[in-house]
Amino acid sequence: MLNPYHNAIRQYCELQARRGLTGQYIRYQVLPDEVLDHTLVSFRVYGVRTEADVVRVAAGVSGIWEALPQIEIILPTALQLAQLKKEYGVEDE
User: Fold this and answer.
1) How far, in Å, CA of 18 to CA of 21, rounded?
2) Can you give the pTM of this predicted structure?
């Protein structure tokens, strides 16, 4: 169930990066204090630490053991993320 959801997030981020439409996504620069704490990016972007998996997918890392690259990543907005969760049957923690 999570794999299709994560794939949808990845596809969404890649599509938005190619389109370049402002307001359709969140551009976020990963900071040095966030490279080892994926939940910190989640908190700063979404106000909760539970979206770290979205951050990992957007940054292109496989798991919590990998450091985030200090690059600008593209994330779905909170509304778009809620729509993807609903579509793929993913429950909020």
Assistant:
1) 9
2) 0.87
